[in-house]
Amino acid sequence: MKKEGLIMNDFRFYNPVRIHFGQSSLNKLPKELAAVGKTILLAYGGGSIKRTGLYNRVMAILEDCGKEVVELSGIMPNPRTEKVYEGIELCKKHNVDFILAVGGGSTIDCSKAIAVGACTDRDFWEAFYLNNEAAEAAIPLGVVLTIPATGSEMDRSAVITHWETGVKTDYNSDLTFPKFSILDPTLTYTLPKNQMINGIVDTLSHIWELYFSEPDTDSVTDNLAEALMRSVIAATRVAIKEPEDYIARSNIMWASTVALCGMIGNGKNSDWASHNIEHAISALFDVAHGAGLAVVHPTYMAYFCQNAPERYARYAVNVWGVDPTGKTALEVAREGVQCTRDFFNEIGAPATLTDLGVPESAIDDLVAHTDMGAWAYKKMTQDDVRAILRMAL
């Protein structure tokens, strides 16, 4: 007889996103655009797509397809409500038919929030992000991905920050799945090193949030998660030295997409406590999400691994190759956590709150802004969060 709570959870899996992957994938954009309306909102960030020439390539395709283009530029990391409101206003003013997000997770998340916000007379933040009301309609959107990190190109989630209140949270709807996403690994060659590192951290963190949760019985889901982790680690070590190694960049890009497409969470409870702690940090200090996770997640692991030593020991052995001979499960678990921190140090990720410019005096405020609603093996309290943040100084 199986123990109660150890049977794989029932799950619903749905993902309608059409993926075009490869170095010629941008050539698929005209066919995709032929199926959408005439007026396109082109959403992008701080201008890197102009420096790399991607902006001109996309604009040429839009022009050849006879589209009228409305531009929303300057979408910031940790996208804020004011940018969403700006996009909603543009969509309503110009009767936008389709949103094309060119960039990373911030641009995509902002576009998703605009997509649902432009189809209602309600305040998007209050209705969807505070009250979690169901969206009834959304402007369809597509993606040209430039930063592998968040997995937003193949999921239904959009994280937005309300800067005035220090609240950073997400909204999820089947209506915000992109219709298609174009993933060309060569578009990541010009990424600054710190952005690549932040994206890799974010990718691994997404896998951990799902993997380190019950049920812990052997499953296809957990085996996939371990394979993804090993692939990301190996590819990162190559890409750090050879930024234009196509195989390494391909594996990083596809892993970041798969990490949050739904499959790695099938049958799992999931955690997300580390993300909730980091959301408070980036909401109050505007640090890059991946940089915050590089500090928080290994510290969170070190703090909580004693509550699930067998699971963390499996991680240590299967992902990092730790030899368990003659060791307790907790000893092996702690070696795995140390391997995690050592890897982040190896690739140059930040290690402490001090590295992020977050002072000790901010801890109480960060605790107050952390959502306690997500946890896995032990219910997280404010005292736990405070202890984790102090460990991370």
UniProtKB/TrEMBL annotation:
Domain Fe-containing alcohol dehydrogenase-like C-terminal: 197-392
Enzyme class per UniProt: oxidoreductase
Domain Alcohol dehydrogenase iron-type/glycerol dehydrogenase GldA: 16-185
InterPro entries reported in the protein's UniProt record: ADH_Fe/GldA, ADH_Fe_C, ADH_Fe_CS, BDH-like
PROSITE patterns tied to this protein: ADH_IRON_1 (PS00913), ADH_IRON_2 (PS00060)
Entry's EC annotation: 1.1.1.1
Pfam family, one: Fe-ADH
Gene3D superfamilies, A to Z: 3.40.50.1970, Dehydroquinate synthase-like - alpha domain
Keyword set, alphabetical order: Oxidoreductase
MF-aspect GO terms: alcohol dehydrogenase (NADP+) activity; butanol dehydrogenase (NAD+) activity; metal ion binding; methylglyoxal reductase (NADPH) (acetol producing) activity
Protein's recorded name: Alcohol dehydrogenase, iron-dependent
Species, as recorded: Anaerotruncus colihominis DSM 17241
